[in-house]
Amino acid sequence: MAHPTLHIPVLLQEVLEWSGIDRQAIEPRTIVDGTLGGGGHAWHLIKKLSPQDTLIGIDRDGGAIDRVTKLFDAELPKDSCHVRLIQSSYRDLPNLMEEHRIPKADCILLDLGLSSDQLEDRERGFSFRVGGDLDMRFCTEEGISVRDLLAKIDEKDLADIIYQFGEERFSRRIARTIVERRKSDPVQTAEQLADLVHRCVPGSRIPGRIDSATRTFQALRIAVNQELKHVEDAMKLLPNCLTPGGRLLVISFHSLEDRIVKHAMRDNEHLKVLTKKPIEASEEETNENSRSRSAKMRVAERCS
Ligand SMILES: C[S@@+](CC[C@H](N)C(=O)[O-])C[C@H]1O[C@@H](n2cnc3c(N)ncnc32)[C@H](O)[C@@H]1O
């Protein structure tokens, strides 16, 4: 595929295997990719589907929907399955199914977090390596940007966000410095924020260790997108969108998300957990794609 995306889908073979897509199907099937991103997983799922089947792709980011729409229009063979791409949150799937008369799904995939396309976009400010204006919203029409949040948030609330969502030990010091500085020179760019964090965290940039700004960036991104709330809501609602035998596959990239997914799958009486331990990337994959190193996939099946 001539793919105008920088994003390499993680655990691709494992997603295809665990999706159950190769099982014999008499009825037309519905597969939902709730985090379309660059369309990598979706593309490979579509290749396994028949013309009577449907793939629903959802993303909060309208730019992702536009990019993948163009790509699929240009590249998908005419006899591919039906494809419907919708800008929304995956937690809205029950409403979308009703509104668009989408039948219950045989498989729902959530590949959480952000895509490499978003990470590399200077207008979004997701990465301190790439830099740019500190926005970090998946959907730029919703909520407030990190820049606006930092301009007005109470110091204690900011410290709590950095501690809870970034597990950063120096959260209070970082919050205090941001608040002190905003009187004269507010933090507006990813470069400024990274520089400030590096000054607050001792031993910040030791080669071979994760850059200390990573934790603060993660925390602020989770906060402005209310990411954990979307995951929690989805884990309650999405099992009801599956047919009996339908599968829910969730790939997470940090322990806060993985914990929610693990407990929600275990505690739902309609789900049978198929992966006793989360599935992780092979050594070969982690060598080729460093993003896959922290990926954990859990799979559950709707039993009734
Ligand atoms: C890791 S990427 C997905 C990559 C995709 N699987 C691929 O193969 O290209 C995560 C995507 O999820 C989207 N996203 C994050 N939270 C979302 C939510 N609550 N609902 C829908 N999409 C969301 C992000 O905008 C991003 O495009």
Tell me what the structure shows.
- This protein is α/β, with parallel strands linked by helices and 304 residues long.
- The protein has 13 helices and 7 strands.
- It has 2 domains: 12-111 and 228-302, 3-Layer(aba) Sandwich (Rossmann fold); 122-225, Putative methyltransferase TM0872, insert domain (DNA polymerase, domain 1), CATH 1.10.150.
- It has a 7-stranded mixed β-sheet, sandwiched between helices.
- It is globular.
- The two termini are 38 Å apart.
- The mean pLDDT is 94.
- S-adenosylmethionine binds at residues 7, 9, 34-35, 37-41, 58-61, 64, 89-90, 111, 113-115, 138, 230.
List the helices and strands and how they pair.
Layout lengths: L11 H7 L11 E4 L6 H9 L5 E6 L2 H14 L6 E6 L5 H7 L5 E7 L4 H4 L26 H7 L2 H12 L4 H11 L8 H11 L12 H13 L1 H11 L4 E11 L2 H13 L3 E3 L9 H6 L7 E7 L2
Parallel strand pairs: 1-2, 1-4, 2-3, 4-5
Antiparallel strand pairs: 5-7, 6-7
S-adenosylmethionine binds next to α2 and β2.
Outline of this structure?
This protein is of the alpha/beta class and 304 residues long.
CATH class of the largest domain: Alpha Beta
Provide the CATH topology of the largest domain. Rossmann fold
Biggest sheet: strand arrangement: 3-2-1-4-5-7-6
- SSE arrangement, N to C: HEHEHEHEHHHHHHHEHEHE
Tell me the Rg in angstroms: 20 Å
Shape: globular
Number of strand elements = 7
Name the beta content range: 5-15%
